[in-house]
């Protein structure tokens, strides 16, 4: 009997036992157990009550609740569009409440481009059902047959001019029921708002100095906080002069708990000065704990103890290989590098904590804060407020604990604590370094028959709320130190380090192996796309190498190995848009290349063609232009989708040309933008985005769908331009120059 | 210790040490949200404001250095109900993702258009090269500035 079968049998057994024990006293529960609850769409599955998602207000407005949060991707606007269409209420009367442990559904983390699928589907079905309930109520009240009713902007109209508004019909009890998802959402032909480029709700405030961010909060009596982090990850505090810092102007609290140091002061510049003084007086004992850097890092990764998993294996009949290619690809540690350092506001009142945070998950953060502060989660409220774009798991959650620790010493006064630039660069969890070995065999016709993908990497998620430890930075440095959670890989089909490691191409024999390195001397977690950026870089670079070995054009070679018509369609569309000419050679300086992926192998399809311009004397590369075609199913907001694709291509270009975190054996050396340059206004490519709308397909997110195809397109364009392939990221001038000789 | 500053046409005396970076006084005493702390080292431009019409990084500008000047923040350009053409253009082009850099972008753009009413695309990119954006909204920002320039000096 397999392990999976044993698991099912055990669950069945427990189910029966429970039913027998409670049978007579809890009849409804028994019915529930006997008849498994129906599977509901998206996040309705875990948050099943309609009134958890929606409130129809007597004044005709609607309040919709989502556990997903705005991180600059436009999700709140897109969700409002869905609500407006399914309920048939004008967009202007939809109020959105997002990310608040006291008000909204628990939808975990806003990540992985999943919000449209999870929250969007839930709201879509909840609203369709609520609309049906309102119609039934109206039919009874108006004495008109249900089929004769229609809705116009929150008003239900019956024949003969009889009408009732949603506001008149609504009662407190109306939506206090479990969703059934039986009401069918509208067909796309009936959409008024979905599919339109509705302007983002958050932008007017952001361009006029509105209180748009947690950074802009001002509460009565609020103090300003700063932390003093150790000089290196394993450093321990030996001594510090707290008294001298306490005597500085405006200082209200100096917090020392183990190796955690923080201050709170009346004014922000006083908090900064106090932190500076505290840092100066602190003596630390440091330990060299970091891995080798540069090229040696990757040989080191290869030798580390690993948890090995065969992610995909296929052994279909096919011809033998007549030619075999091998290549190794690497990606360094890379930073999220938000423009605004992380910030939170915390306030303790009568033993209860309220935190305002730009976390991606208010509920997971609350669970983690409860562990770190040894306070019941029921005594903690976490409310989302926007922050600077995060691009994954950065310092957002950590700074919430820092603020809570400092606010514990301020007798009820709230503390707003922002990290300094150096705190963010040195302490955010980086996107994990990766080493990827590829090997493939071509048959006599130039088709891939064997494919082997093997990768080494740390975990790509150490987010709060989902581990066996405490995944908040300060918790590891307290006197009663807590441990970070143990490393685990996000399982397929989404995958973590192995995200997009399984090629979408049809190869008869393939094997994909993931070596998860559980030790994490360098702090790592989710950076936009997780492993997909490097895996797509490797696969798509290699596809060009294989195409060249087969004497084929890269576009034609990809198409002949694909069976999915949506995949083929984005590749064909981008080739046509960019005026791709088969087998066009670069001229030594300029070249173009293509990259493709279906994000996570289950979300948006994106193909990118990039152009590069190489200065052979200096090795400097420019990417003047890129074309992208995206298919994200039913498009909710075309301009919002285009904005995400443009941004994804530009961010990926920056990662690809510039970015690597540097460290020595003890300390992280990346401290400021001077150490971690990103692409500037004068250096970014123009991005020409085309969208394929598929109203019959489910809508999927897109925030992380372009980065993999973009790096691959640039890598292939560089090889096309110069005839030399670079397989190590980033493509620095030194590397480009070295590859020419 | 006190320092008197003129911000968006309003003069106020603030109880702060004169070497205090202007940014903190704008945000915390004048309660103006737009200028943001990004790096504290004049590397990113999120804190950009105008001092006598010139774009400066308020995170490294001591209050003392700007006492007899006219300081303008994004709030001084226009408001949600009365938008400056630049603000209007940024909304029309949806030229933001997270938006944290946007106030700084707008102020650098304002300084540019005041000096060069008909900038080329290259002029715009050059003028904003010191303002970092991480979401990849650069090209929309350029388009918004071009749109505003057209509206302001047709």
Describe what you observe in this structure:
The complex is a heterodimer of chains A (741) and B (154). By secondary structure, chain A is an alpha+beta fold. Chain A has four domains: 1-36; 38-190, Aldehyde oxidase/xanthine dehydrogenase, molybdopterin binding domain (Aldehyde Oxidoreductase, domain 4, 2-Layer Sandwich), CATH 3.30.365; 214-286 and 336-427, 2-Layer Sandwich (Aldehyde Oxidoreductase, domain 4); 434-461 and 496-740, Aldehyde oxidase/xanthine dehydrogenase, molybdopterin binding domain (Aldehyde Oxidoreductase, domain 4, 2-Layer Sandwich). Chain A has 18 helices and 24 strands. The radius of gyration of chain A is 27 Å and the shape is globular. With 154 residues, chain B is an alpha+beta fold. The relative contact order of chain B is 0.16. The interface between A and B is large, with 61 and 58 residues.
Which helices and strands appear, and what pairs or packs with what?
The complex is a heterodimer of chains A (741) and B (154).
Chain A: H1 3-22, H2 27-34, E1 54-56, E2 62-66, H3 75-87, E3 94-98, H4 115-142, E4 150-152, E5 155-157, E6 163-165, H5 166-169, H6 203-206, E7 223-228, E8 236-239, H7 242-246, E9 251-257, E10 260-265, H8 268-281, E11 283-285, H9 295-303, E12 307-315, E13 323-331, E14 343-349, E15 352-357, H10 362-373, E16 380-384, H11 396-407, E17 415-418, H12 421-427, E18 434-442, E19 448-457, E20 509-516, H13 532-549, H14 554-560, H15 565-577, E21 590-598, E22 605-614, E23 621-631, H16 638-658, E24 686-692, H17 707-722, H18 733-740
Parallel strand pairs in A: 2-3, 7-17, 15-16, 19-20, 23-24
Antiparallel strand pairs in A: 1-2, 4-5, 5-6, 7-10, 8-11, 9-10, 12-20, 13-18, 14-15, 14-17, 18-19, 21-22, 22-23
Helix pairs in contact in A: 3-4, 10-11, 13-17, 16-17
Chain B: E1 3-7, E2 10-14, H1 22-29, E3 48-51, E4 54-57, E5 70-72, H2 74-77, H3 85-92, H4 102-115, H5 121-127, H6 138-152
Parallel strand pairs in B: 1-5
Antiparallel strand pairs in B: 1-2, 3-4, 3-5
Helix pairs in contact in B: 3-6
């Amino acid at each position: 009997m397999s392990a999976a079968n044993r698991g099912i049998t055990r669950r069945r057994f427990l189910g029966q036992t429970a039913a027998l024990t409670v049978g007579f006293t809890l009849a409804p529960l028994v019915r529930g157990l006997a008849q498994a609850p129906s599977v509901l769409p998206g996040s309705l599955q875990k948050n099943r009550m309609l009134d958890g998602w929606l409130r129809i207000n007597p004044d005709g407005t609607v309040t919709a609740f989502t556990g997903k949060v705005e991180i600059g991707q436009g999700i709140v606007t897109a969700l409002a569009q869905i609500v407006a269409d399914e309920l048939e209420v004008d967009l202007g009367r939809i109020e959105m409440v997002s990310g608040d442990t006291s008000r909204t559904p628990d939808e975990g983390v806003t990540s992985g481009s999943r919000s449209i699928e999870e929250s969007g589907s839930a709201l879509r079905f909840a609203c369709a059902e609520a609309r049906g309930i309102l119609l039934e109520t109206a039919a009874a009240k108006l004495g008109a047959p249900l089929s004769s009713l229609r809705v116009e902007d929150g008003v239900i109209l019956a024949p003969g001019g009889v009408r009732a508004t949603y506001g008149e019909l609504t009662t407190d009890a109306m939506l206090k029921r479990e969703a059934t998802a039986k009401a069918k959402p509208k067909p796309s032909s009936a959409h008024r708002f979905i599919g339109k480029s509705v302007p983002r709700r958050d932008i007017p405030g952001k361009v006029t100095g509105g209180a748009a961010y947690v950074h802009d909060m001002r509460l009565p009596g609020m103090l300003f906080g700063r932390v003093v982090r150790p000089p290196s990850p394993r450093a321990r505090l030996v001594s510090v002069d707290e008294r001298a810092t306490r005597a500085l102007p405006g200082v209200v609290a100096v917090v020392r708990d183990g190796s955690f140091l923080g201050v709170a002061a009346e004014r922000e510049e006083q908090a900064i000065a106090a932190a500076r003084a505290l840092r100066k007086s602190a003596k630390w004992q440091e330990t060299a704990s970091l891995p080798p850097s540069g090229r040696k890092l990757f040989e080191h990764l290869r030798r580390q103890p690993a948890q090995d998993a065969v992610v995909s294996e296929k052994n279909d009949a096919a011809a033998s290989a007549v030619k075999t290619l091998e290549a190794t690809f690497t990606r360094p540690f890379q930073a999220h590098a938000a423009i605004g350092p992380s910030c939170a506001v915390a306030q303790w009142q009568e033993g209860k904590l309220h935190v305002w945070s730009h976390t991606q998950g208010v509920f997971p953060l609350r669970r983690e804060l409860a562990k770190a502060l040894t306070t019941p989660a029921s005594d903690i409220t976490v409310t989302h407020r926007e922050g600077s774009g995060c691009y994954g798991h950065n310092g957002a959650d950590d700074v919430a604990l820092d603020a809570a620790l400092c606010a514990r010493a301020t007798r009820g006064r709230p503390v707003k604590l922002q990290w300094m630039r150096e705190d963010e660069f040195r302490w955010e969890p980086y996107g994990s370094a990766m080493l990827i070995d590829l090997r493939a065999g071509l048959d006599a016709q130039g088709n891939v028959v064997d494919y082997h993908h093997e990768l080494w990497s740390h975990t790509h998620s150490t987010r709060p709320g989902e581990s066996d430890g405490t995944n908040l930075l300060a918790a590891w440095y307290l006197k009663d130190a807590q441990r970070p959670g143990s490393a685990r890989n996000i399982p397929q089909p989404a995958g973590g380090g192995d995200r997009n490691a399984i090629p979408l191409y049809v190869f008869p024999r393939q094997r994909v192996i993931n070596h998860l390195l559980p030790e994490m001397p360098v702090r790592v977690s989710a950076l936009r796309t997780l492993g997909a950026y490097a895996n797509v870089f490797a696969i798509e670079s290699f596809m060009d190498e294989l195409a060249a070995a087969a004497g084929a054009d890269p576009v034609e070679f990809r198409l002949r190995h694909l069976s999915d018509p949506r995949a083929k369609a984005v590749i064909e569309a981008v080739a046509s848009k960019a005026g791709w000419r088969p087998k066009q050679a670069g001229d030594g300086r300029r070249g173009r290349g293509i990259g493709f992926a279906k994000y996570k192998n289950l979300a948006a399809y994106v193909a990118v063609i990039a152009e590069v311009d190489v200065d052979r004397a200096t090795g400097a590369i420019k990417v003047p232009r890129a074309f992208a075609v995206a298919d994200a199913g039913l498009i909710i907001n075309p301009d919002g989708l285009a904005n995400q694709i443009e941004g994804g291509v530009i961010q990926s270009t920056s990662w690809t040309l510039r970015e690597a975190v540097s460290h020595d054996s003890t300390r992280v050396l990346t401290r400021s933008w001077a150490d971690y340059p990103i692409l500037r206004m004068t250096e970014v490519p123009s991005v020409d985005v085309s969208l394929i709308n598929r109203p019959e397909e489910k809508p999927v997110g897109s925030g992380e769908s372009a980065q993999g195809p973009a790096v691959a397109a640039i890598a292939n364009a560089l090889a096309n331009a110069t005839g030399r392939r670079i397989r190590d990221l980033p493509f620095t001038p030194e590397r480009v120059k070295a590859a020419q000789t | 210790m006190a320092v008197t500053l003129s911000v968006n046409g309003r003069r106020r005396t603030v109880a702060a040490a004169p070497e205090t970076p202007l940014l903190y006084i704008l945000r915390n005493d004048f309660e103006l949200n737009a200028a943001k702390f990004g790096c504290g080292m004049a590397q990113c431009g999120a804190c950009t404001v105008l001092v006598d019409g010139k774009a400066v990084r308020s995170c490294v500008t001591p209050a003392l250095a700007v006492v007899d000047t006219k300081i303008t923040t994004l709030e001084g350009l226009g408001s949600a109900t009365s938008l400056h053409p630049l603000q209007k253009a940024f909304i029309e082009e949806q030229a933001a993702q997270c938006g944290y850099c946007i106030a700084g972008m707008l102020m650098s753009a304002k300084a540019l258009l005041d000096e060069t009413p008909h900038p080329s695309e290259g002029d715009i990119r050059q003028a904003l090269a010191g303002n970092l954006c991480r979401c990849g909204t650069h090209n929309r920002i350029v388009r918004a500035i071009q749109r505003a320039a057209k509206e302001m000096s047709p």
